[in-house]
Amino acid sequence: MSQQILLRAHNIAVAEEMAKDDKVIVIGEDVGPKGGIWTTFMGLYPKYGENRVIEMPMAEAGYSMFAAGAAMMGYRPVVEIMFADFATLSFEAIVDVCAKFRYNSMGKHSLPITFILPQGVGAGSGAHHSQSVESWFANVPGLKIVAPTGAADVRLFLRASIRDDDPVLFIWHRGLMISREDIPDTLADDEIPSLKNAGKIVKEGNDLTVVAYQRSLVVAQMAAAEVEAETGKTIEIIDPRVLIPFDKEKMFASLRKTGRLLVAHDAPERGGFGAQIVTWAVEELGTELKANPVSVCGKNTVIPFNKLEDYVVPNKEEMKAGMKKALGL
């Protein structure tokens, strides 16, 4: 067991899968000798060479299609989009080729591609480099969406994503890139999780269920500690880890206990994935809920530069207010 930052967890996961399967290849910008701007592929080019660590020009649309072709020929590409915002340039490959290939081949084939998308605020990078993109793709059948929070889960679920036979969007939060966690030195094959039933109760409680992920999960944990101290109530917090397929049963079990729901994420509230979570909860348990669900999400605005970004994503006080509202206080 050793403590690692989230960025290092990416590197470990990709290195482990490349060593395990010679069909795993890396595709992206600056992924060669530099190891990628996020160090995801550090040390892999000297070991595996240009045929497995394939450096591409600044042309996301082109190299995403190239990856689709490689997957058709039996490879398992790991494709890094330098910033998740630039997945718009890969949209044709992701949405119209990768997501539909299983259907168009009548179930005979799929494209096992992992698209790594760094998203979110935290570096003051402004409108074109700081967006949260999960809901842009959640409406597309055929895609899986993985959104882990901490380093340990990044390592586990990146490996699970690479092994999955469907196209996966592996989304991580740049604001958490140097967060630290203990991770095992080695992992056995049977320790690599499925992308199904991936929800994790990170804190148990009896009075309110909170479903949050990535940066908003961290904020929710800080807020919950203060709300519990101030109110005497206890709050259960679920990290979905995988958004599609979503672990509905874990959420339903929690809601049957608490009867109250708060959802939180950094992406804008309008059309955000939290709205889908609320829909599932209300459709399944509407008459059993003690109060209307509450959402604490990003503002419906363009993300500004520098510290102004702090005003458009949930902060601790907003999270506390949402929790108290959901508790009926």
The SSE string, one letter per element, is EHEHEHEHHEHEHEEEEHEEHEHEH
Q: What's the CATH class of the largest domain, please? A: Alpha Beta
What's the N-to-C terminus distance?
43 Å
Low-confidence stretches: none
**What is the overall pLDDT average?**
97
Gross CATH architecture of the largest domain: 3-Layer(aba) Sandwich
Number of strands: 14
Strand order of the largest sheet: 3-2-4-5-7-6-12
Structural class: alpha/beta
Content of β-strand = 15-25%
Radius of gyration: 20 Å
CATH superfamily name of the largest domain?
Thiamin diphosphate (ThDP)-binding fold, Pyr/PP domains
How is this structure best described in words?
The protein has helices spanning 6-20, 44-48, 60-72, 91-98, 101-104, 134-137, 151-163, 215-231, 248-258, 273-285, 316-326; strands at 2-5, 24-28, 53-55, 76-80, 114-119, 144-146, 168-173, 180-183, 200-203, 208-212, 235-239, 242-244, 261-268, 294-298. The chain has 329 residues and is an alpha/beta fold. The strands form 3 sheets. A 7-stranded mixed sheet has the order 3-2-4-5-7-6-12, sandwiched between helices. Helix 1 (6-20) runs parallel beside helix 7, helix 3 packs parallel to helix 4 (91-98) and helix 8 packs across helix 11 (316-326). The protein is globular. The mean pLDDT is 97.
